[in-house]
Design brief:
The complex is a heterodimer of chains A (140) and B (398). Chain A has helices at residues 16-24, 31-35, 65-69, 94-98, 127-131, and strands at residues 4-6, 45-49, 52-56, 75-78, 81-84, 104-106, 112-114, 137-139. Chain A is α+β, with helices and mostly antiparallel strands. In chain A, the strands form four sheets. Chain A has a two-stranded antiparallel ribbon. In chain A, strands 2-3 form a two-stranded antiparallel ribbon. In chain A, a hairpin with a 5-residue loop joins strand 6 (104-106) and strand 7. The longest helix of chain A has 9 residues, at 16-24. The N and C termini of chain A lie close together (8 Å). Chain B is globular and about 60 Å long. Classes of the chains: A alpha+beta (140), B alpha/beta (398).
Chain lengths: 140, 398
Amino acid sequence: MKKIYVQEEWCLKCRLCEYICAYANSGFEDIAAALKDKPIRPRITVEESGKISYAVSCRHCDEPSCVKGCIAGAISKVDGIVKIDKNKCVGCFTCVLSCPYGAVAAGPDGAAMKCELCVENSGGSPMCVKYCPNRAIILE
Amino acid sequence: MDYVIIGNSIAAAGCIEGIRRADQNGKITVVGAEPYHVYGRPLISYLLEGKTDLERIKYRPADFYEKNCCTLVKGERALKIDAQKKRVTLSGGAVLPYDRLAIATGSRPFVPRIPNLEKYEYHTFMTLDDALKLQEKIKTVPNARVLIFGAGLIGLKCAEAIHKSVGEITVADMADRVLPSILDHDGAEIIKKHLEGYGLKFLLSTAANPDSFDFDILCVCTGVVPETELAKECGAEVGRGIFVDGKSKTTVKDIYAAGDCTESYSEVTGKRAAIPILPNAYIQGETAGINMAGGIASFDSALPMNAIGFFGKHILTAGVYEGEAVRAKSSEYRKIFVKDGKLKGFIFIDDFKRAGIYTALIRDGGDISGVDIDGLAENAGLNLFPKNFRDEVLRAKN
C-alpha cells in the first residue's frame, strides 16, 4: 500500500496542502464556499521549526494506536488505510490522545477526523500530493 | 492448539485478534458472562443519551466471531480453572480443555461500605445490563430525583447519560472535587461549573449516606475493582489485579491475563499498578494473544490516560501531575507538567490539539530540557523528537 511521504528539504511552508485538504474534505464544490472566512479543518499540518518545515498527516501505522485505543471500535485499518466510521464514533477523542504524530483531530461534526488518503472524499486520490507546488509531498 | 478466553470484552477482542495474527488454525473458545456480542463498555452512557444504539455499540462487526473462527459461549461464567489438568469448568457444566488460557474477566463495580445502603435499591453503571436496568427504572418514575454517589468518571458519565430523562440529579462524593482521578483542583472547578450549568447539583467533601438525602433513584458509581477470584484460586499471583508481565503472562504456566483484571509493571511510571483503561485492555489482550499463539509481543509502557467529554466539553489527560505546572496562555485550560527535563503529564480541556504527541513524549521519556516549555504548553510538533525519528516516520525511502 502506498503512503504519503514528506521531503522536508522541498517544503516551502506555503500551507497549500492544508487548504486543499480542508477543501477536499469540506463537502463543498466551490473552494471559496468551502474555505473563505472560515476556520479551516485540514487533516494535514505543516510544522515549522527554525528553518525546516514539513507536513504531517496520518502514517497509516502498522500498529495503529488510534485503532487499538478506540472505545467504540469505530477505527479500523482496511486495505492499508486507517479509517474512522463516523457512524460509530462517539467523539471521545481517545484517538487524538493516542496518535503519536498528532494526526487525528476533532472534526466539524463532533466525530474524529484524519487523513484517509482522499479515497472517499471529492479528491479521489491524495489532493495534498497532487497540489503540492514543489512536490514535497509524495505518494509511494 | 486450543485457546480459551474467559471474558468477552475489549481485552478478549484484542486477544482474539492477537491469536489470529500468529495462528490461523487453532480453536478459540470465548466465555462471556454477558449475553451479548462484544460491545464498548464506555458506550453505555452514549446509549442512554441516544447517541448510539444497540447495533452501533458493537465493538466489532456482527461477523467478528465467525470471521475469526471463534466459538462464543454467551451467558455463562467460568467457575473454576484447573491449572494442573488445564481445563476450565463453566456454570453450565461444560468443561473446556485448553493449551493456552487468557483471563480477561475485567472488573466489577466497587461498592464501598455506605451506612444504611442495605435499605435501598441501588444501581451501578458499568455494564450494558446496568444501563438498560437504569433506563427502565427511570421510565417508571416521572421527573425522578436521582442521587449519584461518586463524582468520578463513571458517576459523571452516568449523570450526563440520564439528565434529559430525569427531574434532577445530585452528585455526592467524599472527594473535594469532581473527577479527582484525572483532574487537579483548577481543572475540576472548570468542569464542575460547566456541569452545574446543566443543572447538576454537587455535594463534595460529603460522606455517602442515603438516609441524609431525598431521592427516588440511587446510583452508586464509586469505581471498579479487578475481578481476580478465578486467578487467585488457581494459584496466580494477585495484588490489586492479576499480576502479568510485559508478555501478559500470569505467574501460572500457560495462563495469560489482560485488561481491567490485571496489574503490571510500567516502564513509564516505574510502578506496578492496575490501569483500568480501554486502550490498555486492548493492547494487553492483543499482546497476550500473540504470545499465546507462539508469536512475540510485549507491552510495558502503560500509563494513565483518559479522553472523556461531558455536555460538549472535552478533557484529555495523561501521565502524572508532578513537577512544574505550565499553562498555555492562549487556552482556557491547557496545562503540562515538567519534571527533571521530562514531560510527566498534561491536562487539556477543550483545546486538545495534537494531544497524542504529548502522550508519546511522556511514554518515550525523551529529554525536553532544551525545549521552550511555554511554547510546548501551547502546541507540539514532531520537532520535539530526534531528527532520525522524524525522518523514519515522514520520509520516503531514498
